[in-house]
Specification:
Rossmann fold; 8 strands; single chain; five-stranded parallel beta sheet; Helix Hairpins; three-stranded antiparallel beta sheet
Length: about 230
């Protein structure tokens, strides 16, 4: 199994720092250790246990050849999330969540096809017959579609699970996943309502060290699972 961070490593990464007590969501109370200087402190013993369960689930899904969609549109997480998802060969959304991405997947699938077709036309040189202005228009269309569905090109059906960084920010994604019965793994800070999340990872969701620590161990778990699947 992936190397689970120790509580000391979690402390160094700042995983325990929640939000101000005035911003809390009561449903996160089971994961809160206490408060200090008006800021909630997350119970890292519980975070560690929850993380272990979430990683085991993701490893199991990857070992079965299943697809996990990674979602993280927060400024400080989008770069690392994209890099990690590409390294494990999973689809991702790091720009704005597309309404209907799960509940109206047929439309998203058409957008993905349009994007792939335009890219193919460009790389094959089929666009060379057009004027410079027309080619620029195609480039703009490609760039626009890339922002929307560039991370979804490998997705030809609904994902088998979804990993979300910051469940409060990505509440639309969570709502859609619940409608389609897609299991949800999510990083939840103390200001978040974790209702509907199948695997809650109680953690600070802003610190860059926390982002690095968690995404690295998630990458390890998914790669371990994929290695098992490759041997089948």
């Amino acid at each position: 199994m992936a190397n689970i961070p120790t509580i000391e490593e979690m402390l160094k990464a700042g995983m325990h720092f929640g939000h101000r007590t005035s911003k809390w969501h009561p449903k996160m109370e089971p994961f809160i250790f206490g408060s200090r200087n008006g800021v909630h402190v997350i119970d890292l013993a519980k975070s560690k246990k929850c993380l272990e369960e979430a990683l085991e689930f993701m490893k199991k899904f990857a070992a079965e050849g299943k697809v996990i969609l990674f979602v993280g549109t927060k400024m400080q997480v989008k770069g690392p999330m994209k890099k990690m998802a590409e390294e494990v060969g999973m689809p991702y959304i790091t720009e704005k969540w597309l309404g209907g991405c799960l509940t109206n997947f047929a439309i998203i699938k058409k957008m993905i096809k349009k994007y792939k077709d335009l890219l193919d036309d460009k790389t094959s040189g089929r666009l060379s017959k057009y004027t410079k202005k027309e080619r620029l228009d195609f480039d703009r269309k490609i760039a626009k579609l890339e922002l929307k569905v560039g991370g979804l090109v490998s997705l030809n059906k609904l994902p088998d699970a979804i990993f979300i960084w910051d469940a409060k920010l990505e509440k639309t994604a969570i709502a859609e996943a619940r409608v389609k019965n897609v299991p949800i793994i999510a990083v939840c800070d103390t200001n978040t309502n974790p209702t509907g999340v199948n695997y809650v990872i109680p953690s600070n969701d802003d610190a860059t060290k926390t982002i690095k620590l968690l995404l690295n161990v998630i990458k390890e778990a998914v790669l371990e699972g994929k290695a098992i699947f490759a041997k089948k």
